[in-house]
Every structure is written in C-alpha cells, then in structure tokens.
Amino acid sequence: SGQAYGSAVGQMLSDKTQKKDIKPASNSVNSFLEALAAREFAYKNESAPGATPGHRVGVMAQDLEKSKLGKSMVKPGPAGKSVDIAQALGASLAANEIGRASCRERV
C-alpha cells in the first residue's frame, strides 16, 4: 500500500514539489554535527533486533539526542534506543553538502 512505501522499503518522499516551508538547514545541521562523536563498537548481543555481528563504526543514540535534529531520529526499540535510518541519511546528506559548500567557499 502507499502508506507502507516509506518505512517498509527504506524509501521516503523527497520530491521538492511535495514539500513546504523549505529553508536552509545549516544551523540545525551544524548543531547536529557538533553533538556527534564517531565511535567504533561491537554489540553486546549481536542477535538483538537491529544489531549486527562484528565491529561497527557509527554514533550513539544518546549523542544524537543532544541536538534537536538528532533527537527527532531516536526511537525506542525492543532492545534499546534505535535510529530512524531515513532521517539519519537525510541529515547526513545535508551535512555533506554543507561541508562541501564550506570547502568551496575557502578555495
């Protein structure tokens, strides 16, 4: 069904014509980035929902919660806090573009 499209298949609507109140996000993205700390880790219980075996690189939900943008990505899960991947990807892409723009300005 149309409602399942977003979360079930890992896609979300991104069409500019379907959005409103569009404005630059540099302040919220910068706050989001300042709250993050890249970490290497392994899950205590690799069979827990959302966990995977082996060492991983990522961020902690508790760090995400330190910013308004990051807090909106953190959801309660059966084994602890989890991250809405669609929202995280959107923020990551926005952060990447802001970083690229900053680099272009310095050149």
Question: Which helices and strands, and how do they pair?
Answer:
Blueprint: H1 5-8, H2 26-35, E1 39-42, E2 55-58, H3 61-64, H4 68-71, E3 74-77, E4 80-83, H5 85-106
Antiparallel strand pairs: 1-2, 3-4
Describe the structure.
- The chain is of the alpha+beta class and 107 residues long.
- It has helices spanning 5-8, 26-35, 61-64, 68-71, 85-106; strands at residues 39-42, 55-58, 74-77, 80-83.
- The strands form two sheets. A two-stranded antiparallel sheet has the order 1-2.
- Helix 2 (26-35) packs across helix 5.
- The protein is globular and about 45 Å long.
Taken in chain order, the helices and strands follow as HHEEHHEEH
What best-fitting shape do the alpha-carbon axes yield? globular
How large, in whole angstroms, is the Cα Rg? 16 Å
Overall pLDDT, averaged? Answer: 84
Helix content: 40-55%
Separation of the first and last Cα atoms? 48 Å
Unreliable parts: 1-9
**What portion of residues belong to β-strands?**
5-15%
Lateral arrangement of strands in the main beta sheet: 1-2
Class computed from helices, strands and strand pairing? alpha+beta
How would a crystallographer describe the biggest sheet?
Answer: 2 strands, antiparallel
| Number of E strands | 4
The DSSP helix count reads: 5
Brief write-up:
With 107 residues, this protein is α+β, with helices and mostly antiparallel strands. The chain has five helices and four strands, in the order H-H-E-E-H-H-E-E-H.
Key structural traits:
two-stranded antiparallel sheet, 5 helices, globular
